[in-house]
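Sample 3 of the quickstart, ligand pyridoxal-5'-phosphate:
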Amino acid sequence: MSDAAHPAWAVYDLDRLHANLAGIRRRCGPGQAVMAALKGNAYGHGAVPVARALDGEGLAAFMTGSFDEARRIGAEGLRTPIVMFAGALPAGMADLVEAGLVPTVVDRAGAEAAARAAQPGGTAPVYVKVDAGLGRLGVALEAAEDFLLDLAAIEGLEVQGLYTHLPFGDARGRGWAEGRFAAFDDLLARLEERGLAPPVTQAGASASVAAGLSDRANAVCVGHLLYGLSPFSDASVADLSPYRPVLAEVGSRLVQVSDHPQGSDIAIAGSFGTKRGRRTGVAPVGAAQGVARPVPGSRPEVLIRGRRAPILAVSLEHLTLDLTDVGEAEVGDTVLLLGGDGEAAIGLGELAAWFGTRELDAVLALSGRLTARYRGAGSGITRI
Ligand SMILES: *Cc1c(COP(=O)(O)O)cnc(C)c1O
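Result:
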């Protein structure tokens, strides 16, 4: 398919996804299985293509967010179990169980509803989420042991997993997380003693894996690191160089090149008054495609012919570019907002900085609005 009708694309590199997973596995060692967090449309990378790419990797589970997303993954007929993060009311449990999904339960009403939806004589598999200190979702840590004892008495219920989430962004958060991991480990030890520990237990996620925290659970659940995104607000917490962003390229093409005499306006009516004659180019990608208006003081650039060209303006559907240093640029030339061209490269960190957001938020902003291309294992062109 030609992209000439609207040249604006994002390239997701599935080889990097596999390489990031290999890095996570090296870091965790053979004692911990890996579950992939696919919520938020696989953090904006496309839940179905990512699930397809990972299905042969022997993951313990795909952890998904919305019911819609889980059903789309389920329709692919993959082998990996699909577990839903908590997000359904008790009255919705039957829909999840009947769709072959594994719900998360956080209260007795939800667990009973899941059990009632089991096939006659069969069981409904569930995971239990514990709030080990984040203060968001889950059964309170102190109540978890009694809760599991209660669930063991519910006919038709099979607790397959027990998990918690303890993300952190900086060194102070790391100290907090170490204490909370220890408390969750204590819970697991008590459950093991009483024979109540489910087959899958998990607390580790991107921040703890990258920072090298270890814990007693037999699995980790990773999102950020899998996609090569930093989970940290403070870059000094851990070395992330083994992980590369799966979003490898964001590009467009020049649809016009023009010359503007000194004193004329460029993209901003009545106020630009360029001090010298300039050559500019226009690429058909803008705020509607998720490109942020640059934070004040930033000097965002794109790559054209392996050289940097400043962005003069971000409009709803267009970028206006200063071609002074790429004077020979022509209509049809590739414009990279992210990616590498020869020696030059614009990384996700640089893009996120002028977007004024975290890497994940920059990826989410661009997700689903550009022609998505996948390269590496199982590639193709699709819209996500
Ligand atoms: C999103 C999520 C994860 C993955 O977190 P990352 O920091 O992206 O690795 C793990 N566990 C739970 C419960 C989550 O909601």
